[in-house]
Amino acid sequence: MLRDVVERWRAVAFVIVVLLTLSGCYAGHTASGPVFAGTGDRRDAVVAFGAEPVNLDFTRTSGAAIPQLLLNNVYETLVKIGQNGEIQPLLAERWEISADRLTYDFFLVPGVTFSDGRPFTSADVVASFERTQTDWLNAIAGSMAIIESAEAISETQVRVTLSRPSNQWLFTLGTAAGAIFPAELDFDLATTAIGTGPFEVSQVAPGSHIILSGRSDYWGAPPALDSVTVRYFSDPTAAVNALRAGDVDLILNLATGDQFRALEQVAGLQVLVGTSTGEVLWSFNNRRFPDVRVRQAFAYAVDREAVLAALTADFGILLGSMVTPQDPFFEDLSQVFPYDPDRARELLAEAGAVDLTVSLDVPSLPYAMQAAEIIQAYLAQVGVTAAINVLEFPAVWLEQVFRNHDFDMSVIMHSEAWDLLTVFGSPDYYVGYDNPEVLRQAALADSGTPEQWVAGMREVVREIVADVPAVVLYLAPTLVAANVGLTGIAVNAVTESFDLTNLGWH
What we know:
With 506 residues, the protein is of the alpha+beta class. The protein contains 14 helices and 22 strands.
């Protein structure tokens, strides 16, 4: 049964690949490959994403779909994380850090305006930072709790004082937690986005698409495109068909690894592989599984190499923790819990968890549903019966699993950068992991020298991994297939954002 499930997913992917490769029935497609319109003078593009935002407000709505669309494109930050992980100036043209590492003076780019014409000043920065501690409901705001005060020294200078030194905080400013909003929020963030970025939201069609329009008054280099239409697909095959037909110009992570392998051979298309912050997490409700032996048994029960091969065609990589290879304190901990079904049975017996029945409540996302079937088969081999419940994503999954914590297990990709302590730093988070010592040790490490930070955080990560509040199945790659004429594709997902700012045609 187990081999059948894994091989079935590989077989399904293979059949799709064969059909896509051989079929000539798509609009705009010939036997020699897709026919794409001339691209040199185009001023628009159509890109395809998977998960659709439930609204436009990532301050009060969790998940990666909203900042994937809006961060860097509509909302900007003081600093930006470059494609190689380096910190770059953005709304702050420079900054100074005090000798005790507690005070940061940011000097803002002059002449910047929001998309509705109001000027950007230090007051907007102060208000945005203060709201992360008062108004935000998204758990990522916790990374800004270290701010003790933010003060407008002048219209173009902001002074931020931290409660303790931090090695990580400046990087945090380049993520969604550091997004800058107008000081006066005289609009509904759920339906309207007013930022300083090169695009503005001009149309939202729920269940279909969102259109971003380029700003001619943007303070920096204007975008090469007048508009980018983001279409949302729940069916990967439909997205691939749309790409081959020329109905979309780019698809992002919207196909199996085997489908991307086939697209590499299609004339007129380019396939790009980049890094990611997307850890695919097999999460446990620690409130329902308080015995660490049971959670360890789950970890031993599943062959993650088989999951990786079946779901990504080995594009992804195995991880043992929610720390990615681009992070300074990364360690390869993928073999801490190797596949060992005998050990899994022993631990379940020791814990008195014989003939265990669990619910596997997963979002209606292709990778999650595929992973759930493979996990179900592996768990059956160690005497655990898993009932799969597919929940509509995002609405139902967010309500049942994320907000109400009504689940036993789930599978979801966490795409936020540096999200280790977001996920495992609070018992109120959906996984319910409660270890105050982890927070104490992490704060101590973050306040130390860079060397102490790396060493201390590695100890923190090892402790979390040993407790198994969840299992990282694999780190998803960033996989992009696009019209060969499309340039400026930011293939490395170093934050939640898919950066559209440099897209253009040659």
